[in-house]
Amino acid sequence: MDITNINATLIEAQVIEALRTCFDPEIPVNIHELGLIYEIKVEPSGAVGIRMTLTSPNCPAAGSLPAEVRDKVQGVPGVTDAKVDVVWDPPWDPSRMSEAARLELGLF
Fold this sequence. Notes:
This protein is of the alpha+beta class.
């Protein structure tokens, strides 16, 4: 693995940790464990692209959550830029949640 891949891997791990500090206001679980993050792409330049969704198009956090994600990702050391794209395909459903999120919410 070359140094570029190592740096991208380290940045991605730190981005995931930053995303774990973002919460959907209606569900007490972070957006990463909820399965709202579909893709994290780290470029060699340090630019990060995030593809994410929300639990529904009517989510009250639709205006604020993507900006919060962008701001937190931009705060990660080594990140030079962050772009967040909200997508609706595939639609989110509870099966995208991690086992930890299901346990937290009592969904077995």
